């Protein structure tokens, strides 16, 4: 379940009449990271025509050697580009944009600007300074080009590249690619480590409220948990860690270390037991940072929370997922890098499952305004438990079916299948009955 690419031989010559940081960035992602082969990029036509290597021409006119991808101007421009015409089309059964209206049946050439379309999705150009935001400052999935194309539940960039690979193999049967291995990466967000404990005076008020509302079962569960006669239902980390150990899976746990607030954790007393549990989990899995709601756009809060978690774990932490998935391009990723965070798992919509970036394979954040590739890697999450239950009103069985379909699509392209569940949704409380059993089936069967 771990990816390993061997040293890459130069297999493909790519001709472009122009060079740019954007072009080099997207070629590296598509060929080196996804297809597992290296490439030689040249802007000298004669050098390309005389090369014995298999070839791809990325230019306005077909040089009649190799596979031709007609280029647009996106990869050779600078800064943000206002795009009004996306020229939607089809490549076989795959939806496309930046289509050049050629019928792919006519020849072996690619009928759309695959490189520019991939760059547009991975760079998140559509999200830069967007006004299509919800009340938490998050980009709305309804504005996404992938939602408009109807393919948001597919890793479409990966599928495009696999199809390109198959065309290359037909034209150049001796080509060999280093296949990327599929990985299943389950992740847990720890927003609320306790349901009843560590809430101070609030617990006393809640006990009275339970009695007033005649919720006697909840009253007794709360009281017995507070008095330490029962384990808190949200404090189920030993169960999760044991499940991962049995299936030989390394999971990621994102721990909230922020202050008490309207959208942040609902307990107020620090817990030695929780700190001990985090250190125990971190031995076999990885405990990472879950920056608070207020830390999303605040460098002081972010750095404080990161240092707090590092004190608990006794080592540095370089990966995170934003609480409430509050990310904003490009500010959030500049902020994370300034705090020493170089892996982010926040890229998914809160109310739509699928692939926000169009890919299931990690890729470096490209800062469009500064025109440079950064060291920060983006890991696209595919599905969230709450999205399935609350936004799609799925039962546990329906959720398992939806997750399995996503899993199979990622497996087919050799990507990383990343799921997001919460310890609270695995507690078998009234509103989450059956989800814990479903999760066990998910982990054991995928």
Short synopsis of the structure:
The protein is α/β, with parallel strands linked by helices and 446 residues long. Helix content is 35%, strand content 16%.
Could you explain the architecture of this structure?
The protein is an alpha/beta fold and 446 residues long. Helices cover 35% and strands 16% of the residues. The chain contains 14 helices and 15 strands. It has helices at residues 21-35, 45-50, 114-123, 145-149, 156-171, 201-212, 216-226, 237-246, 272-284, 299-313, 331-338, 385-391, 396-413, 435-445; strands at residues 10-16, 38-42, 55-59, 67-70, 89-91, 94-96, 183-190, 252-256, 286-290, 319-320, 343-344, 363-367, 372-378, 383-384, 416-422. Strands 9-8-7-15-14 form a 5-stranded parallel β-sheet. α13 packs parallel to α14 (435-445). The longest helix is centred in the last third of the chain and has 18 residues, at 396-413. It starts with 9 loop residues before the first strand and ends with a helix. The model is unreliable at 1-6 (pLDDT under 50).
| Total DSSP helices | 14
Q: Which blocks of ≥5 consecutive residues have pLDDT under 50? A: 1-6
Silhouette: elongated
**Average pLDDT score:** 90
Report, as a whole number of angstroms, the end-to-end distance.
11 Å
- Main β-sheet description: 5 strands, parallel
Helix content: 25-40%
SSE-based structural type: alpha/beta
Content of β-strand: 15-25%
How are the strands of the largest sheet arranged? 9-8-7-15-14
Total beta-strand segments: 15
Task: Give the ordered list of helices and strands.
Answer: EHEHEEEEHHHEHHHEHEHEHEEEEHHEH
């Amino acid at each position: 379940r771990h990816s390993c690419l061997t040293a890459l031989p130069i297999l493909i010559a790519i001709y472009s009449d122009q060079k740019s940081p954007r072009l080099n960035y997207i070629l590296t992602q598509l060929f080196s990271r996804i297809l597992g082969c290296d490439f030689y990029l040249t802007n000298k036509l004669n050098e390309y025509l005389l090369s014995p290597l298999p070839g791809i021409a990325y230019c306005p006119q077909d040089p009649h050697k190799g596979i031709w991808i007609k280029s647009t101007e996106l990869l050779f421009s600078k800064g943000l580009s206002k795009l009004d015409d996306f020229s939607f089309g089809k490549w076989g059964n795959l939806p496309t944009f930046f289509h050049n209206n050629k019928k792919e049946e006519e020849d072996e050439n690619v009928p759309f600007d695959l490189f520019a379309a991939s760059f547009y999705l991975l760079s998140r150009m559509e999200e830069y300074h967007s006004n299509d935001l919800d009340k938490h400052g998050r980009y709305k999935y309804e504005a996404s080009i992938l939602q408009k194309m109807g393919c948001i539940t597919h890793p479409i960039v990966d599928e495009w590249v696999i199809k390109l690979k198959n065309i290359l193999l037909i034209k150049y049967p001796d080509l060999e690619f280093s296949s990327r291995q599929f990985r299943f990466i389950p992740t847990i967000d720890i927003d609320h480590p306790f349901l009843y404990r560590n809430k101070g005076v609030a617990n006393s008020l809640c006990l009275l409220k339970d009695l007033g509302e005649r919720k006697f079962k909840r009253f007794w569960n709360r009281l017995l948990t507070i008095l330490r006669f029962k384990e808190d239902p949200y404090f189920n980390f030993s169960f999760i860690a044991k499940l991962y150990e049995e299936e030989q899976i390394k999971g990621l746990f994102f721990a909230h270390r922020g202050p008490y607030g309207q959208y942040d954790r609902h307990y107020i007393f620090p817990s030695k037991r929780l700190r001990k549990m985090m250190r125990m989990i971190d031995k076999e899995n990885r405990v990472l940072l879950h920056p608070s709601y207020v830390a999303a756009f605040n460098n002081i809060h972010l750095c404080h929370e990161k240092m707090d978690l590092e004190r608990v774990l006794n080592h540095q932490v370089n990966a995170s997922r934003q609480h409430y998935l509050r990310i904003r391009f490009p500010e959030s990723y500049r902020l994370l890098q300034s705090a020493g965070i170089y892996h982010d798992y926040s890229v998914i919509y809160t109310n739509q499952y699928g692939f926000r970036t169009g890919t299931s394979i990690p890729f470096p954040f490209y800062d469009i305004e500064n025109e440079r590739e950064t060291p920060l890697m983006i890991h696209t999450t595919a599905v969230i438990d709450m999205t399935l239950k609350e936004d799609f009103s799925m039962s546990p069985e329906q959720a398992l079916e939806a997750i399995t379909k996503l899993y199979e699509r990622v497996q087919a392209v050799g990507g990383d299948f990343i799921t997001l569940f919460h310890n609270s949704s695995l507690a078998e409380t009234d509103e989450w009955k059956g989800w814990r059993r479903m999760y066990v089936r998910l982990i054991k069967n995928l």
